[in-house]
Amino acid sequence: MQKNNRQDRLFNAAFKLFLLHQYKGVTLTDIEKETGMTRGAIFYHAKNKEDLYRKVVKRYWIDRQNLKKKMDLKKDCSSLKEFIYSYTGSISRTMNGLHSLPAGCTVQQASQAYLSFLMQLKETAPDLHDEYLSNRTYELFTWNDVLRAAVANGEISEDIDTYAFAQTFLFLFYGQTFWEALDNGLNVDQLRRNYLKIYDAIRVKKDSETE
Fold first, then answer.
1. Alpha helices (runs of H) in 77-202, residue ranges in sequence order
2. Domain 66-210 architecture
3. 82: closest CA among 91, 73, 92?
4. What predicted TM-score, i.e. pTM, was given to this entire model?
């Protein structure tokens, strides 16, 4: 098996274990059993359990939540409406990738595991948690930039508070994610519909629509 294939197998299995059992609940023996790899083979790709944890969190959590890596911002920000479709599309792709990892889990179990994982990230890897928060801040500023551009080009009303609406769009996503994790996981189609309702409320109406 090629090096990259072995690394992918190791990282996939390790992330699933860390996700379902948390960092303290996973041993190197667990990882050996899950991957079928010897400890020496594991240490070829990571110095120790902590290093392996950091690498898989970076790959499967931090980078997949990074808007710069999820979207082509120059291409996808030509209008607020287009950004909404591209943004929710990127959420679908991220969710599909993440939910494919914990094999044998229901969507509900996977969603709840991700929330629990996120809550413990601050304790297990504070610097990676800070990077995650930095990505969220960048996401908020991106929404604000898109909204300001939409005001400038006449797409939406000029008298709105763009930063407040940027928070509204972002908080709706995170709030709906937490709320629906208790049921069947985030319904991205419903999130898109909710976004478009907000969009319709603030977009500039044509004369024919106001008559």
1. 80-99, 107-124, 126-152, 162-181, 188-202
2. Orthogonal Bundle (1.10)
3. 73
4. 0.84
